[in-house]
Structure formats: C-alpha cells, structure tokens
Amino acid sequence: MSFNGRSLQRMCSGSTDNFLLKISSRSRRRTRKSPRTHALPLASFRSGVWNYWKEQGRRDLPWRRTNHPYKILVSELMLQQTQVHRVIPKYKEFLKAFPTVRHLARSHFVDVLKVWNGLGYNRRAKYLRDAAIEVVEKHGGNVPRDYQSLRALSGVGDYTARAIRVFAFNEPDILLETNIRTAYIHNFYSSILQKTAISDSEILPLAASAAEDNPPGGGRREWHWALMDYGAYLKRSGVRNNHRSAHYTRQSKFEGSFRQLRGAIIRALASSKNISGLRNHYIGKFDRALASLARDGLIVSEKGRWRIA
User: Fold this and answer.
1) Which domains, and CATH codes, for the chain?
2) Catalytic entry in 76, 134, 202, 222
3) 76 catalytic residue (yes or no)
4) Is 87 exposed, middle or buried (0-12, 13-18, 19+ CB in 10 A)?
5) pTM of whole model > 0.70?
6) How confident is the model over 161-205, as pLDDT tens digits?
C-alpha cells in the first residue's frame, strides 16, 4: 500500500470512510472479539498509519528530535492537557533556562514558574522541579528507566511513566491517549452503538497487536508518534469521538474559572505584584483559591503576605 500526498488527502477527506476504513462490514462487526480476529484489518490499519506518518508525520517537533530522558520528562509533563503549539516555544525556553536535570533541581521555584507562565496548570511546574530533585537525590541525576521508579517521581502517572519509557528508551509499552484513542475507536468501533462507552481495557489488546511487526527501524517510539499524528489528523478532519471513550472528561470553561484565578494569583506573585485587586474581581473565589494554592504547595503566607513557595 502506497500513496502520494494528493491521493492520500483525497482518500482521507470528507467522509469517515477514509482509506484506513476500507475493510469489510463483516470484520467491523467482530471488533469486540479477540484481537486475533482483526488480522486483516490490523494489517491494513498498521500499513495505513505508517503511510500517513511517511507522508505527513511531524518529525520536526523538538521532543521528537531527541531521546534524552530529561528532555522527554520535560516534554511529557508540559504536554499534559496542553496543546502542542503552545508547548513548543515553552519547551525550548524551559530547556534554555534549565538545560539539565541538575540545573532544574537546584533552581528556585519562582524562577521555574516565571518560565512556565502561559502553560497553565502550574502544579505541573512544581511537580517537574520536585521530580528533578528526586532524580538527582535518588537516581544520581539519571532519569530512571523502569516503570516503578518513574511512577514514584512527582507528577508522573501511569501514562507519563510509559511515555517516558517509550520515547526515551524505546521500551515496548503501549500508550493510550486522546489522539490514539481517536484512531482506534474510529477505525475499529465505528459500528458499535454511539452511546456505548469504549474502555481502555477493550482497546489495549488491539493496540498491543497493532504495535507488533513494525517495519525495520520503526520501533515503539516511532509507532506511537505515527498513531498520535494520525489521530490528530482525524480530529482536524472532523472526527469527534472522544466522548465515546469511557475515560473521557470534558474540560471546564477557562474564562472566569477557578483555574484562571489560580493562574492570575501565581503570575502576580511571581512578578512581585499586589494581588489585592484580584479579590474584588473574583468575589467569593479569592480566598478559596489562595487556600487551594497553599495546599498544593505553590504559595506560602509569611508575615501576613503571600509569596511563591
């Protein structure tokens, strides 16, 4: 199976019946059985994903040009709940300010927040700095390779630990995130009732089978890049199936939200600005926001004044 850019675009555009879905209705009806029943569709799916990667893969993303474990750790925490185009400039800025895990470990938290500003979810900045300290103190400055040691780091959950193993060490873990779920649900569960929630436990055996038999030089690292890019392409093409995942949660509106207020307080304190004006703008939320930031270890009260922890 091979496609040039024009034919690939023509075959994939418009209808959800794209070039990866040219499989029989009989095979689609069997999607809830063992992955062994997907042999032919899986082969077509795998080949199509690789062809899309060959034609339009985003190899130029900065974290895809390295397998350095520290840089992968930085990128993975930044990419949590944040769009790629927002992460790219911050990733570069962050690594310029903190080029090694030891630089980050000995930094002042307020300096980390200043660089992080604009990415949101500021707890991630604290987790990342805490993780750097843990890597230096417990692992001699080397980001660990094994799953359990990675999971023990601050801010590193199941997906992030597996992503670091895949992208830094090319380990054979299976990753499921929003774009990858989109690809599998769209191609293998399109005939299932729309209100049926598809769990990761159903997708994982299928994903494990699809990850096998990669072409020469295409390990788990590149396979997952290809899957992510294909899923992102589907979304740009109008596919909206995130809600069909049993693990989907809709993100709340940002404008006027508690998250917005927390971010505004952090920005003000990081710049040594007075935060009293925010109290009048966010009546009823301000004190709760201060308390939540203090609980998260982001700010502390000292002599009646708040400052970055």
Assistant:
1) 5-59+173-244 (no CATH), 68-169 (1.10.340.30), 258-308 (no CATH)
2) 76
3) yes
4) buried
5) yes
6) 999 999 999 999 999 999 999 999 988 887 665 667 889 889 999
